[in-house]
């Protein structure tokens, strides 16, 4: 007998509908899976067989053929186990065909029949809803996340035995329990620190760098801090999450979708804070940008989508990894092509980086490096990469006894107000932040006053700015005006934006 059950698999951070077809016929007992399965799917025989037996059901001693359609798309992961098991039970008439009609199933099976969570549930359920499925059965651990897709009925399954009972309409579907946070209380191990752990008030002095950090948070601008060791660069950058604006509902759903596909689904279902990723400088290009040999996975730039990517000790990163950032910084997406896959990942992140002026880190006049060492160190940061930073600030150690600055709560209030002004200004456009305004639309959407225009043209000519550099000063000036709650960009805003774009390192 033939049975068909709807399911889905991940392709990058998106879902791909899969129809699991199960054919059970007479012949020598065997189990064959076709349709470009990976190793995890090919090994499903033992998991599915043990789960069915543990549920008190009968395993057919017949010829079983499982086809994963469409046959030309590679399938990954163990999330198809539950659909395969239900297909076998329907094909052997243990379950009626009506039980799985217009119903999809997602989940990995344990040997004892438990249904275990799978990554990317929100993307998979959304894909199935678009494919016309009325009901999706997901593991209990993924139920809160799947419920974010409002257009489909979500049912939770804790084990195969109780699921079969519910599908046969013998009992009502149970409610799923509330998710429980881990020992550290965080849903994502790469999440930023809690506001009560770090605060901008702990940073003494550094008024100029603090102004740059606030401007970067308000406009979504890329920021580079350069200075000697111990000046407070890293301390300042790690407090950026405490002043970032709140996630909009659309952004929260996008962040949840990406982190779920990476196996880092936030506790509670929906992300509540902007991601803050901080990879070590030994990170590979594939880990930073995304990729992989057998399966293409998102990299750090995608995991930082709608949040911040912090690169400490920027000069120590491999030049190949740094140069690979240039295209995502401009287009805010990553396109990865492999022999089997060609995927596009979102990468709308805010880059924050810290670097030393030279290998010894001291800088003039105390530098002990040779001219060749300094030149070699500077070549690690190419001019095209440095040109993509909206804000570049030289940081010097604060004076002893400098008073503490404003707290994160005070600064975040100003940032949130500036972001609200940007949302109102760009409500009819596909972008919402000053840093995202296309250069061709700057004159129309972000006009300069006559005095500001003269100042902007003078700075561009005096400093021989590239077109990209001049446009970034224009955007930063708009953010400074938003922080001042000024509808018009003045010459003082342009001058300050130019001063916040120093020639470093």
Written overview of the protein:
The termini are far apart. It is built from 20 helices and 18 strands. The radius of gyration is 27 Å and the shape is elongated. The longest helix is centred in the last third of the chain and has 18 residues, at 408-425. The strands form six sheets. Strands 11-14-17-10-18 form a five-stranded parallel β-sheet. The protein has a four-stranded mixed β-sheet with strand order 1-2-4-3. A three-stranded parallel β-sheet has the order 5-8-9, sandwiched between helices. Helix content is 34%, strand content 17%. The model is unreliable at 181-187 (pLDDT under 50). Helix 7 crosses helix 19 (467-483) and helix 18 (450-462) packs parallel to helix 20. The protein has two domains: 2-167, Ribosomal Protein S5, domain 2 (2-Layer Sandwich), CATH 3.30.230.10; 200-398 and 405-499, Rossmann fold (3-Layer(aba) Sandwich), CATH 3.40.50. By secondary structure, it is of the alpha/beta class.
In short:
This protein is α/β, with parallel strands linked by helices. It is 34% helix and 17% strand.
Structural key phrases:
505 residues; single chain; 5-stranded parallel sheet; Rossmann fold; alpha/beta; Ribosomal Protein S5, domain 2; elongated; 4-stranded mixed sheet; 2 domains
